[in-house]
Amino acid sequence: MPAVPLDPRDSMPAPQQPHWTQGTPCQQPPWTPETPCQPPSNFTGPQGLHASSPTGHLGLHASTPKGHPRFFNQLYAGMDHYSLAARFITEALNPSVYTYEVSPAFILIEEAVLMKMIEFLGWKEGDGIFSPGGSVSNMYAVNLARYNHCPDIKEKGLSQAPRLVMFTSEECHYSMKKAAAFLGIGTHNVYFVKTDDRGKMIPQELEKQVERANEEGAVPFLVIATSGTTVVGAFDPLDEIADICKKHNLWLHVDASWGGSALLSRKYRKLLHGIHRANSVAWNPHKMLMAGIQCCALLVKDKNMLMKYSSGYWTSFL
Ligand SMILES: Cc1ncc(COP(=O)(O)O)c(C=O)c1O
Question: What segment(s) does the record annotate as region Disordered (predicted)?
């Protein structure tokens, strides 16, 4: 009798790659700006895509099949059919949640989803916003933490601010440095904290880095812990990190872009023990929750902060 596969996906053929990715693998890591991932030398460019079929005309046959059960890659968690159906609906209705007038139902849905996520964090209240990516959520959080430390920065700008230093682990996502660069904090003012052999931030090393910044006359303002690091999936010890933040009056942001969805698991939610003590959290339902890409939330414990510090000014036409 033929063996019955335990997982029906085991008996499925591997997804077909588009013709122009076959036989021409990307450069092997480490990639550098000099060795970027390139299409093959015989790739004729987008003008060749319409040649063979109606789907080709739409560019479909030149896409990697991400809905296939055996498609694995960073960022994608798989294809959820409810999510796909919901995306057809949202594309058809083309809503924008900037006013109740154009999107009454979607504004209420957004609010309900954010509140449910806040409940999972263990906060009594809070506010949130969906953003174009975990990187952007992290940048918003750095901005809020800075406002928290320098309340008049919105009006007076960087010229009035001291040298601010933020802390995160060696295993953090690259968006931390990007946020520091974009916001004028400077990448040299991101202090990286050593991790243990499983990739988790070592709290004692964090304490040392905070002391180092103080001795240098800089102003520590923010710690970013990671729940689910990009490469090894490590969860930083949030409770111990929160103690240090409390002692030094530092904003605690948790980048749970990857691992936040473990909060929905009775078995694994302990990995995020202490997340209720964070000031802000980035969480991407498009990762482990299988929402369609992109679905990223920034959640903030102080329910007034987003409106006060990150909004533009009131305007009469909205
Ligand atoms: C830990 C972590 N933070 C942030 C991000 C950035 O998320 P996005 O790709 O949605 O910008 C990622 C993406 O892989 C991540 O793994």
Answer: 1-63
Minimal-distance CA residue to ligand 1 atom 4 = 134
Domains of the chain, earliest start first: 128-306 (3.40.640.10)
Q: Using most ligand atoms within 8 A of CB, pick from 136, 258, 280 the residue to mutate for ligand 1.
A: 258
Distance (Å, whole) CA 230 – CA 75: 10
Q: Please tell me whether residue 56 adopts helix, strand or coil conformation.
A: helix
Residue 29 has pLDDT above 70, yes or no: no
- Beta-sheet pairing, 164-169 with 219-226: parallel
- By percentage, how much of the chain surpasses pLDDT 90? 63
Neighbours of 183 (CB within 10 A): 15
175 three-state secondary structure: helix
Work out whether strand 296-300 and strand 127-131 pair parallel, antiparallel, or are unpaired.
antiparallel
Does the pLDDT of residue 57 top 60, yes or no? Answer: no
Query: What confidence tier does 77 reach under pLDDT thresholds 50, 70, 90?
Result: confident
User: Which residues surround ligand 1 with Cβ inside 6 Å?
Assistant: 133-135, 173, 175, 226, 228-230, 255, 257-258, 284, 294, 296
